[in-house]
Amino acid sequence: MNDFLERRELGRTGMHSCRLGIGSTFDAPAEAIEEAFDHGINYLYWGSIRQPEFARAMVNLSKMHRDELILTVQTYSDDPGSIEAEVEAALKTAGLENFDFLLLGNRMEKPSDAYIELFERLREQGKVRFMSLSSHNRPLIPELLADYEQDHSPYELLMFRYNAVHRGAEKDVFPFVPETSRPAIITYTATRWGHLLDASKMPPGEKPLNARDCYRYSLSHPAIDMVVCGPANHDQIKEAISALKAGPLEPDEREQIERIGAYIYKQYAPQYADRGDDEDVSAGLAAQ
Ligand SMILES: NC(=O)c1ccc[n+]([C@@H]2O[C@H](COP(=O)([O-])OP(=O)(O)OC[C@H]3O[C@@H](n4cnc5c(N)ncnc54)[C@H](OP(=O)(O)O)[C@@H]3O)[C@@H](O)[C@H]2O)c1
Questions:
Q1: Of ligand 1's atoms, which has the minimum distance to the CA of residue 26?
Q2: Structural domain boundaries in the chain
């Protein structure tokens, strides 16, 4: 069995996840998300845009399978004082009793103790179970990994950008991920906002990639426990699932994806760069 089909434990939570998770932003229908669960996908991320269809799937699946699901709610709030009400509203809107993860989204610095106190309060009330964080500041991630190893970090899951265009995590993050005693490592933007699938953005003579191979690219890195995908419909969910069965990339597939990624990095700057992008590995490759 290829290792994309195995589950990974998320930090010390005791929860085991499929290697692919689904984000709510692109509004796939509830039935398609429920079908993804039948194919093993159990991490559902009610993220930047909390779509009602996604909530419907979470509620439907929770009726029979709550213990197998890993449900995340994300907040971008800069005011820890507002998060309790936000989580309560999200629970009410979705019709759920609790979330497994509260994800502090887009944190450029270590969150203050006020966030941790807020989390403890929500945990005592049974509204969330664990804390996680996403960041566009890659150099922050090794700091959080070191804190975790010393038992000084509450974040059981860390999430950041990684794809064949943005490979900076290969130098800024992955070398610092310990074998054991570490939080789950999750990445997003596997398709680079769809650019890796866009025929008009390819180098001369190259065919565009498909989403399946973009997910395979990220999943092939051993440090990455899970890739969050953003399907917009049933077909896109089926294609994402096919990445699991296809397994790790062959060397020639990797070489092609990295060639296209380096070209796109050079031609199409990101609208929103990660901190650490200045010395991106892809930029180095593209300059050669
Ligand atoms: N916390 C954070 O800082 C953060 C940052 C980035 C992303 N996220 C979240 O992560 C989740 C995943 O987002 P992502 O951008 O990483 O997802 P993704 O799967 O890399 O990209 C989704 C995009 O790819 C296209 N796509 C997906 N599957 C496809 C397929 N089979 N064929 C053709 N096109 C396909 C969709 O395009 P069309 O819509 O054009 O069909 C969509 O624009 C989202 O919920 C997002 O909000 C969080």
A1: 39
A2: 3-287
With the most atoms of ligand 1 within 8 angstroms of its CB, the residue from 229, 239, 257, 274 to mutate is 229
CA dihedral 218, 223, 226, 227 (to 10 degrees): -20
Q: Which two tokens stand for residue 278?
A: 């200045």
Regarding the beta carbon of 47 and ligand 1, being less than 6 Å apart is answered: yes
Query: Which residue, among 132, 46, 44, 25, has the nearest Cα to 89 in the 3D structure?
Result: 46
> Does ligand 1 have an atom closer than 6 angstroms to the CB of 187?
no
Residue 81 Cα to ligand 1 midpoint, Å, equals 30
Q: How far is the CA of 217 from the centre of ligand 1 (A)?
A: 15
Q: Report the residue among 188, 209, 213, 217 best suited for mutation to probe ligand 1: largest number of ligand atoms under 8 A from its CB.
A: 188
Ligand 1 center–CA 61 separation, angstroms: 22
Predicted TM-score (pTM) of this structure: 0.95
Residue nearest to atom 14 of ligand 1 (CA): 189
Residue 134, ligand 1, Cβ within 6 A:
yes
Q: What is the architecture, at CATH level 2, of domain 3-287?
A: Alpha-Beta Barrel (3.20)
Least Cα distance to 240 among 43, 9, 16 occurs for: 43
Tell the residue nearest (CA) to atom 27 of ligand 1.
231
Low-confidence ranges of the chain (pLDDT < 50): 281, 284-288
In the chain, what percentage of residues exceed pLDDT 70? 96
Render pLDDT for 97-144 as a digit per residue (tens, 0 to 9).
Answer: 999 999 999 999 999 999 999 999 999 999 999 999 999 999 999 999
